[in-house]
Design a protein that fits this description.
Length: 120
């Protein structure tokens, strides 16, 4: 779905798009495939949710309990500023894996602990 088409979606529809985009990006990352399109899609959704405000972003909270670990990870990353403890625990859980997402999660934890990354 093009970024221009995302604008017309309701918050709930946008959250569902985030779920699909996170799942697809996770699959691409762990299979070491180029993921430019998937990353751009997830960032476009993220940016639109941020533009809509905190209440829209908080609608990502149910994704922290999604059955898909990639969905949980990317939702936790996005919610670090709004739900820091819950998000951090999911990111730490992701870091215990043995795939590329685990490597990303370990780097994120390191950057958080060293104050090199500040959640938005």
């Amino acid at each position: 779905m093009k970024s221009a088409n995302l604008i017309a979606l309701s918050d709930n529809e946008l959250i569902e798009e985030f779920r699909h985009a996170a799942r697809e990006l996770g699959e691409v990352v762990v299979n070491w495939m180029p993921g430019v399109r998937e990353t751009q899609r997830l960032f476009a959704i993220r940016n639109l949710l941020r533009q809509r405000g905190q209440q829209s972003r908080l609608k990502l909270m149910p994704l922290l309990d999604d059955k898909d670990p990639y969905v949980r990870y990317y939702a936790a990353h996005e919610l670090l500023a709004l739900a820091p403890q819950r998000s951090r625990s999911i990111i730490e859980e992701s870091a215990r894996g043995h795939d590329a997402i685990a490597g990303d999660a370990k780097g994120l934890i390191r950057d958080l602990d060293n104050s090199q990354y500040k959640p938005h």
